[in-house]
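Action item from last meeting closed. Structure (184 res):
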């Protein structure tokens, strides 16, 4: 394998919107990066919360864990947020944020903060906390943020790539639930 040119790393990418595929887009980037020898770390905010091991350990994680240069840490509270967040939801998000801050100083080339923008949308994090992460990350660290159905122009202003995933139609709207191997 040829020498990696890590000098080209350091951008901030965002995948947001009301469509299916925000995490999938970030993990597609992770797959590409792992295949090319970059060290990728995934931090998932508010995932791992259904109590169903099959759903809480989805296929994309199982597949990426086969790469030695991929690692993952999930921060779920054991339940979904429905209505007003409970204290254990808030605590898990704060724990994930602190872990993310520390990870930005570790030996990773690419860090994915999956669902962090949903944490902002739900009021568990403030926009300024995410902006500070972006401003204070090391220059050579690629940072990918996902989540949220609503835009955050203040955060987007600090990103290099912002992609909106737009829903036109979704099987869930017709009563079709998530399917193993396709949605998890």
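Sequence:
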């Amino acid at each position: 394998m040829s020498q990696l040119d890590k000098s080209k790393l350091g951008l901030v990418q965002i995948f947001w919107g009301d469509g299916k595929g925000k995490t999938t887009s970030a993990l597609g980037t992770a797959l590409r990066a792992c295949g090319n020898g970059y060290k990728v770390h995934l931090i998932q905010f508010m995932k791992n919360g259904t109590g169903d091991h099959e759903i809480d350990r989805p296929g994309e994680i199982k597949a990426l864990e086969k790469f030695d240069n991929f690692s993952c840490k999930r921060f779920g509270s054991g339940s979904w947020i429905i209505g007003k967040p409970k204290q254990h939801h808030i605590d898990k998000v704060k724990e994930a944020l602190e872990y993310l801050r520390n990870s930005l100083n570790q030996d990773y080339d690419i860090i994915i903060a999956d669902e962090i923008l949903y944490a902002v949308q739900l009021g568990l994090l403030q926009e300024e906390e995410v902006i500070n992460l972006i401003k204070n990350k090391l220059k050579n660290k690629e940072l990918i943020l996902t989540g949220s159905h609503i835009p955050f122009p203040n955060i987007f202003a600090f990103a290099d790539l912002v992609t909106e995933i737009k829903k036109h139609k979704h099987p869930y709207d017709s009563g079709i639930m998530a399917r193993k191997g396709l949605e998890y």
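Note appended to the action item: Strands lie at 12-16, 40-45, 70-75, 110-114, 142-146, 161-164.
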